[in-house]
Amino acid sequence: MKPAPSTAVEDAHVVFLVNFVAPNLIAVCQQIAARVGKFTILSSVAMESNRDWQTEWGDLDVRVQKTWTITRHPKHPGGYVEVNYVHIPTDTLGQLRRLKPDAIVSLELGARTAWSSLYKSLHRKCVHITSVYASERSESGRGRLRGWLRRRLLRRAQWVTHNGPSCQRLLLSFGADPNRMSSWNYAADPNKAYRGPITQKSDRSSLKMLTVGQLSERKGVTQALQQLSQWATAHPDVSIVWNVVGNGPLMESMKATSLPANLTMLLHGHCGPEAIADQYRDNDLMLFPTLADEWGLVVDESLQSGLPVIGSLYSQAVTTLITDGCEGMVYDPEEPSSLAQAIDRILAMPDEDYQRMPETARLTGAARTPEASADQLVNAIRMAMQSNARAR
Fold first, then answer.
1. Which among 4, 94, 210, 288 has the fewest CB atoms less than 10 Å away?
2. Are 245 and 276 in contact (CB under 8 A)?
């Protein structure tokens, strides 16, 4: 007897299991939903408690699961401590049995993927794509148990997607099959970037820098403040205004910091998309001082806004998208003189090269759209379906 014909991806019911639906995922998921037969999101929690984001899903079919959450405060080899949530959605098998998906996409190498892998083993016609957002830096210092679980899940994975070169190297080191792997890039929230004309900037006697993100140890804002202060003290003829958008546990200590006369720090707190877009328009440079980010969507937003980035090499977005002197500068936040050297290189650039950076930045960011991201995932589902049909 011939096997039943496989469902085309355009007609497939795709179920996406995610920890929570972040704002940048909304537009991507809407594009995915437009490309498949039916799209359902199983979200472990509505939103994590350390986020300022609103729970807004638009017309997406989002179902919040019954979840057991473990709160941890691990210390990273990079020296920072930050809250970490481990979500274990306990009703996953029951939800999948009710939904009867043709394809499952599970995010990360944990409980969501373990349950999805088990469901796949019991339902051969269903395909399972394991999607991983990670970097070598972000995964540094994970325990042996997590390493064992990741290797086991990747050996069983039908198809795997990664979010960048560092993530790909990490997955290969865990034993992932390179012939069953493809890219699924992040796409920034399209409402946050500034889309208007770029104003040419030639005067570098004053610089306006922008940082967007949580004010936490991992984001490296304390080191950035110290390093900016040292640079400003050594360069009294140049003034710096540092606009900081975001909330977090370091807000009060940053407010209490004494600054040199030529360094002004403006703490704006949490801002909505329109206010963030205005900041991208009005500043000269993005400063992204993170000590560990498996990506860093503010880099995408900055590039799409035509805002060059001075970015940490511990952000996968920076090491993937930024070339020194083209879209900005790369620096090491753990090296005390590295930020100063990056600023010095910016100031020493010929006017023509300096004025070219915003256009180069926007060109680099232009391709990273929700539409392109959705196409990548739908193509991964298609390849998994084709592989599944051959195996049957």
1. 4
2. yes
The domain spans of the chain are: 9-187+369-391, 206-365
Q: How many CB atoms lie within 10 A of CB 169?
A: 13
Longest Cα–Cα distance in the chain: 82
Coil, helix or strand at residue 34: coil
Is the pTM of the predicted complex or chain greater than 0.90?
yes
Q: What is the pLDDT of residues 33-80, one digit of tens each?
A: 999 999 999 999 999 877 877 788 989 999 999 999 988 887 787 778
Class of domain 206-365: alpha beta
CB 127 within 8 A of CB 36: no
The two beta strands, 103-107 and 84-89, are unpaired
Alpha carbons 20 and 47: distance in angstroms, whole number: 6
Q: What is the pLDDT of residues 3-12, one digit of tens each?
A: 455 679 999 9
Q: What does the radius of gyration of the chain's CA atoms come to, in whole angstroms?
A: 22
Residue 157 tokens read as 């994975």
**CATH top-level class of 9-187+369-391:** alpha beta
Return phi, psi of residue 182, to 5°.
-150, 170
Catalogue the long-range contacts made by 380-383 (C-beta closer than 8 Å, 24 or more residues apart): 380/129, 380/159, 380/161, 380/182, 380/184, 381/9, 381/12, 381/14, 381/36, 381/103, 381/105, 381/127, 381/129, 381/159, 382/9, 383/159, 383/182
